[in-house]
Amino acid sequence: MALTKQLVIDRGMAVLFTEHSMDVVFAYADRMIVLARGRLIAQGKPLEIRDHTEGAGGLFRQRQDLREESGGGGAMSSHELLLEAKALCAWYGAAQILYDVDLDVRRGEVVALMGRNGAGKSTTLKALIGMLAKRRGAVRFLGHDISKSEPHVAAPPRPWASCPRTAASSPTSA
Question: Are 84 and 121 in contact (CB under 8 A)?
């Protein structure tokens, strides 16, 4: 994560990641978004969220947005908005998993998407890039509406996809 954080700083990138280790989040995330049962329940600076709750149990019972209380932090900064989701909902078959999730990620920001197992973290990422058959809400990436885009259009190409293969790097070489 230290290298990731340095790339964000050096290249003005943004990172949205999921993580279970609070130590990693406190060390590297500028902002934290917390989900529980498919709903956004808190967002703000990691230490402020920790300080405004009564341990993990309190965190999962409260709905908070500490960005306005604390004068903003990363999310309310003037940095360019790279990713934005409004009222994002997602389903697996008939089962609704996400309920009206709003989130944003700005240039130069490392954002941790947190929650217990089954909270909706992976589903959120899949919904953002169009990997689910049924989703609703608005998703914008670099100012473009990708709400109806297929994953190969919404997701940026993998950095290694353009690397030439050599016989030594080919998985079929002996």
Answer: no
Burial class (CB in 10 A: 0-12, 13-18, 19+), 77: middle
- The CATH architecture annotation of domain 2-157 reads 3-Layer(aba) Sandwich (3.40)
Please compute, for residue 59, the number of CA atoms within 13 A of its CA located in the half-sphere on the CB side: 22
What single letter denotes the amino acid at residue 47? L
3-class DSSP assignment, residue 158: coil
Q: What residue spans define the domains of the chain? A: 2-157
Tens digits of residue pLDDT in 48-60: 888 876 544 554 4
- For 84, the token pair is 């934005």
pTM value is: 0.74
Tokens 């217990």 map to which residue? 116
Q: Which amino acid is residue 148, in one-letter code?
A: K
Element (H, E) at 45: none
All residue ranges of the chain with pLDDT < 70 are 53-78, 154-174
Do the strands 81-92 and 134-141 form a parallel or antiparallel pair, or are they unpaired? antiparallel
Sequence-ordered list of residues with C-beta below 8 angstroms from that of 57, at least 6 positions apart, any chain: none
